TrEMBL record:
Keywords attached to this entry: ATP-binding, Kinase, Nucleotide-binding, Serine/threonine-protein kinase, Transferase
GO biological process: regulation of mRNA processing; spliceosomal complex assembly
Residue ranges annotated for the Protein kinase domain, each copy included: 41-414
Superkingdom of the source species: Eukaryota
Organism: Aspergillus kawachii
SMART domains xrefs: S_TKc
Keyword Phosphoprotein attached: no
Gene3D superfamilies linked: Phosphorylase Kinase, domain 1 (3.30.200.20), Transferase(Phosphotransferase) domain 1 (1.10.510.10)
One annotated GO molecular function: ATP binding
InterPro entries: Kinase-like_dom_sf, Prot_kinase_dom, SRPK
Annotated EC: 2.7.11.1
Catalytic activity: L-threonyl-[protein] + ATP = O-phospho-L-threonyl-[protein] + ADP + H(+); L-seryl-[protein] + ATP = O-phospho-L-seryl-[protein] + ADP + H(+)
Top enzyme class: transferase
UniProt name for this protein: non-specific serine/threonine protein kinase
Lineage: Eukaryota, Fungi, Dikarya, Ascomycota, Pezizomycotina
Length: 414
């Protein structure tokens, strides 16, 4: 909960990083015009933010190009695997840079001291909007990316996963918010063009209600991010995986990770374990998103609901998981109807029409193939459907790998 002693003049507060994160060990306070690394990088706009970092549009005054400057929270600056993972990937990608393999290209790294601690700063090539933002915008207009673009992005995502796994890294964050378009076409643009596309930074001052001065660890203002409303480069730019901070070496013991809401892997629900093959499930969910414009399973609902959706879309659970599933159903009790389907209370009381992807409500159940024929029916995208199904196998050992998926895709999308 936010500190009520602060005054928040607009809704920027509710869409940006929480002020409670500006504390020792937390975010570094940044203002437009700030410079980093002996005045090499100048801040011009805010690109995005996450639970462990803020990301800024900066100008590299030495190389005369636009870059993305990621400033990690102090607490995660030394525990994150991101820099190590990127360095490991660079060994695999050489002599080509990572951008040729659809991983965001690291240009520089340095340490920045501040009032809230010591922060790791990573300088990347300029990024565009997230794939989640672009596809959602198309869907809201009852439109979609053209088939050739979808095939091209699918191939690029699979190649990125292939590289990551070949480097021995696994369990990265493969989600719509973590897959971005590159910004190559704007990297050397004039400031006038940049702001014509990105817009001017919006901000609201942060003040105490009683007028007392802010602690130096707080920002003087909260900045809104780039809106991307005038960005029209999805047909020309390439895909990039943005954040590798969650990934770890495949030989390490599996662990419980933060799961992308609509892409929860079944092995975590039924066994509490995961490994690099969980990435394949998440990749299958993303390919589904590319094709259908929605995710295959709901987010922000109980595991019971998600498992029902998985069964209806993909078929029966593995036999070894059935006892756990029977127990889950028994515990649900009166939350199920006479057909054994989930009733409304487990959907957080949201209206049924808000669950566009929910296949367990109503009389009809659509398999993956049924949904494609009913909702998409685009012959050029048909080769992706068996790939999606093969990556969404319940048992991790039965999922196809990224190279196998690329082999099935053949020359489509090139």
């Amino acid at each position: 909960m936010e500190d009520s002693s602060f005054e928040y003049p607009s809704d920027i507060l509710y869409t940006q990083e929480p002020l409670s994160g500006y504390k020792f060990g937390g975010y570094h306070p940044v203002r437009i015009g700030d410079t980093f690394k002996d005045n090499r990088y100048t801040i011009h706009h805010k690109l995005t933010w996450g639970g462990f970092s803020t990301v800024w549009l900066a100008h590299d005054n030495l190389r005369h190009r636009w870059v993305s400057l990621k400033i990690k929270t102090a607490d995660t600056s030394y525990s994150s695997q991101e820099l190590l993972n990127l360095q490991q990937l660079e060994k695999i990608a050489a002599p080509d840079d990572l951008s040729s393999k659809y991983i965001l290209h690291l240009l520089d790294a340095f340490i920045q001291p501040g009032p809230n601690g010591i922060h790791q700063c990573l300088v990347f090539e300029l990024i565009g909007p997230t794939i989640d933002r672009i596809i959602t915008d198309y869907r809201e207009l009852s439109d979609s990316l053209d088939p050739q673009t979808i095939l091209r992005l699918s191939r690029q995502l699979l190649k990125a996963i292939e590289l990551v796994h070949n480097a021995g890294v696994g369990q990265i964050d493969i989600s719509g918010r973590n897959i971005v378009f590159s910004g190559r076409n704007l990297s050397y643009a004039s400031e006038k063009i940049i702001f014509a596309v990105f817009g001017s930074p919006e901000h609201e001052p942060v003040t105490h209600l009683d007028g007392t001065p802010l602690h130096k660890g707080f920002p003087a203002a909260l900045f809104g991010p780039v809106s991307w409303e005038d960005w029209l480069e999805e047909f020309a730019e390439e895909l990039r995986i943005f954040d590798l901070g969650e990934g770890f070496a495949q030989e390490e013991k599996s662990r419980i990770l933060a799961q992308p809401g609509p892409s929860r892997a079944p092995e975590l629900i039924f066994t509490g374990r995961s490994d690099h093959r969980t990435d394949l499930w998440h990749t299958g969910c993303m390919l589904f998103f590319f094709v259908f414009g929605t995710y295959p399973f709901d987010s922000d609902v109980e595991d019971m609901v998600v498992v029902e959706q998985m069964i209806d879309l993909l078929g029966e659970l593995p036999q070894e998981w059935q006892p756990t599933w029977d127990r889950m159903r028994a515990e649900a009790g009166d939350m199920m109807d006479f057909q054994g389907k989930i009733l409304q209370p487990l959907l957080n009381n949201a209206p049924l029409h808000q669950h566009a992807d929910l296949q367990i409500i109503g009389d009809e159940v659509f398999t993956l193939e049924d949904r494609f024929d009913k909702e998409v029916a685009e012959p050029e995208l048909a080769p992706l459907i068996p790939i999606i199904r093969a990556m969404l196998e319940f048992r991790p050992s039965e999922r196809i790998t990224a190279p196998q998926a690329l082999g099935l895709l053949g020359s489509q999308g090139q």
